[in-house]
Design a protein that fits this description.
With 312 residues, this protein is an alpha/beta fold. The chain has 11 helices and 15 strands. The chain folds into 2 domains: 49 residues, no CATH class; 251 residues, Divalent-metal-dependent TIM barrel enzymes (TIM Barrel, Alpha-Beta Barrel), CATH 3.20.20.
């Protein structure tokens, strides 16, 4: 007499944690058991849908997004990040926690830290400390997001000093297996020659020691075009912050606007599909959602759904 036994196993699936496969075993047969995969059609549809997605890269998040909770309830915040399907974090250890302890906690939660941050002053005056922290976190990239200058008046002299400092610090990081990335913040679009001071920074820094992180909101806010810059400078861009800008916001060269002007991707004024296509062509290594608004618990999931909805 034959007996039918059904069991379910879970297998890795691109674009999601796992997918269920149900097996129906027919026992009581002379020499074998016959498995019948009941979700074959589901699996094919899921894999085909994933192959048609425009954005298929591992998704990360900038720790600043959770600045209101990560320093105070670190483990629970990491659980929230993990529950969103995010496995990559750009950031450093919260105050009072060593980088080694933070890395261990992140790894226990299934989260990796490929990129961390350092201030300009740290890079210039405490380079070895920056190296130690980055390596302790397991990071490959160190980003710096601000060059000291008078608000709204970033100058050639500021850019020249930054070039010298970035080349020097970047060489030290490179000798230790790390890559320095300057995070563009929008004030660098002051006119210079036939271009801007951002062009000066890219062209004058040594590509062996200095790369760049594109924050697409700040590029747009400063009057730049993310797609044009990705195409122009290619693999000088290594990292990207994904965030959208509220439609109609007045722009300037201060590198600052209300945090409530951060919008979920696809609801602001940026050409997100065009940017993602250019970013893939440029070879962006890591993408980090960054949302500085007070609505992260609704906007970050909305951003993730939007990215998954984009088709080639």
């Amino acid at each position: 007499m034959s007996t039918y036994i059904q069991s379910t196993r879970y297998f890795p699936c691109p674009g999601q944690d796992s997918y269920p496969v149900s097996f129906l075993y027919i026992t009581g047969m002379p020499y074998y058991r016959l498995p019948i995969v009941t979700c074959f059609v589901f699996c094919c549809i899921s894999l085909n849908s994933f192959s048609q997605q425009l954005f298929r890269e591992p998704l990360g998040i900038q720790a600043y997004t959770f600045r209101r909770s990560l320093p105070f309830n670190t483990a629970a915040t990491l659980d929230t990040i993990r529950s969103m399907g995010i496995r990559l974090l750009e950031g450093g250890a919260p105050r009072g926690m060593t980088p080694e302890a933070f890395r261990k906690l992140c790894e226990e939660k299934g989260i990796r830290i490929p990129s961390t941050g350092a201030s300009y002053e740290e890079l210039v005056n405490r380079t070895d400390s920056v190296v130690y922290k980055a390596r302790a976190l397991g990071a490959s990239y160190v980003m710096c997001s601000w060059i000291p200058h008078s608000r709204g008046a970033f100058s050639l002299a500021d850019a020249q000093k930054a070039v010298a400092d970035f080349n020097r610090a970047g060489q030290r990081l490179q000798e230790n297996g790390l890559t320095l990335c300057y995070h563009v913040h929008g004030y660098e679009f002051q006119p210079y020659g036939n271009g801007t001071l951002l062009d000066y920074l890219v062209m004058q820094t040594n590509p062996d020691y200095v790369s760049f992180e594109m924050d697409i909101l700040w590029v747009q806010f400063g009057g730049g075009d993310p797609v044009t810059l990705l195409n122009r400078y290619g693999n000088r861009w290594k990292l990207m912050h994904l965030k959208d800008l509220r439609k109609g916001v007045a722009k300037d060269l201060t590198g600052g606007t209300s945090q409530e002007n951060d919008m979920a991707l696809g609801t602001g004024e940026l050409d997100i599909p065009g940017i993602l296509k250019a970013a893939k062509k440029a070879g962006i290594r890591y993408y980090f959602i960054e949302d500085e608004s007070s609505a992260i618990l609704t906007q970050v999931p909305q951003t993730i759904r939007y990215l998954k909805s984009l088709k080639k």
